[in-house]
């Protein structure tokens, strides 16, 4: 055998299992693509017909993700870190302007949330409350619109 001879390897040639797995993955990807393409037009129509509701739904979803994903990022950007307040940050500027930090106050709660303490539950609760509020806004708007549509400006009580 010469040194340039390539030996057959079971890893270089697809087996029937590899082919079946590849076909299955292709079918799943095609199904997901077709589902998204089928869903897009009704979603766009809904957004165009109900822009306030659509914005509130997006805000609600964002708030629900917020407690675990967005809140830590925003806290970090503001300067609240797991090691304390970052020097030169917005949080440091606020802390220096307020003097003594009150235990249990807003600043202490945000710092606690960044450190994974009691504030994390409070921030998560606030984010969840904001998500609920974002879902209530479209209901209130619908009720107000219905009241406006039901009232006839021509009719007056005299």
From TrEMBL:
Gene Ontology CC entries for this record: membrane
Keyword Secreted: no
Keywords: Membrane, Transmembrane, Transmembrane helix
Keyword Membrane: yes
Record InterPro entries: IFI6/IFI27-like (IPR009311), IFI6/IFI27-like_sf (IPR038213)
Pfam families for this protein: Ifi-6-16
PANTHER family the record matches: INTERFERON ALPHA-INDUCIBLE PROTEIN 27 (PTHR16932), INTERFERON, ALPHA-INDUCIBLE PROTEIN 27-LIKE 2 (PTHR16932:SF18)
Family per record: Belongs to the IFI6/IFI27 family.
Name used for this protein in its record: Uncharacterized protein
Natural source organism: Melanomma pulvis-pyrius CBS 109.77
């Amino acid at each position: 055998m010469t040194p340039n001879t390539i030996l057959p390897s079971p890893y270089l040639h697809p087996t029937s299992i590899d082919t079946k797995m590849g076909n299955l993955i292709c079918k799943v990807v095609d199904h997901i693509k077709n589902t998204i393409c089928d869903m897009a037009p009704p979603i766009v129509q809904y957004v165009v017909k109900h822009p306030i509701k659509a914005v509130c739904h997006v805000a609600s979803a964002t708030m629900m993700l917020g407690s675990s994903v967005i809140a830590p990022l925003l806290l970090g950007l503001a300067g609240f870190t797991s090691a304390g307040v970052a020097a030169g940050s917005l949080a440091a500027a606020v802390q220096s302007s307020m003097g003594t930090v009150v235990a249990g106050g807003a600043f202490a709660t945000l710092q606690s949330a960044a450190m994974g303490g009691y504030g994390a539950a409070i921030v998560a609760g606030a984010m969840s409350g904001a998500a609920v509020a974002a879902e209530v806004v479209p209901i209130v708007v619908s009720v107000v619109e219905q009241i406006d549509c039901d009232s006839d400006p021509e009719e007056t009580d005299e």
